[in-house]
Amino acid sequence: MNLSFFIASRYFRSKKKRNFITILSRISMIGVAVGTMALVVVLSVFNGLEDLVRSLYASFDAELKIEAAAGKSFEVEAAWLESIQNIEGVEIVTEVIEDNALFKYRDYQHLARLKGVSDNYLDHGRFGRGYTWGNLDLGTSGRPKAIIGRGVGFFLSMDLDNEFEMLQVFYPKAPRSAGTIDPSQLYNTGVLRPAAFFSVDKEFDDNYIIAPLDFVASLLNYGSRRTALEIKVGEGENIQKVKKRLRAHLGEGFTVKDTDEQHAGLLRTIKIEKLFVFITLSFILAVASFNIFFSLSMMAIEKKKDTAILFAIGAREKLVRSIYLKQGAIIAFSGALIGLVLGFVLVWAQDTFGLVSLGIASSVIENYPVKMVWTDFFWTSVAVIAITFLASYRPALIASKVRPNDL
Question: Which pTM was predicted?
Answer without folding.
Answer: 0.75
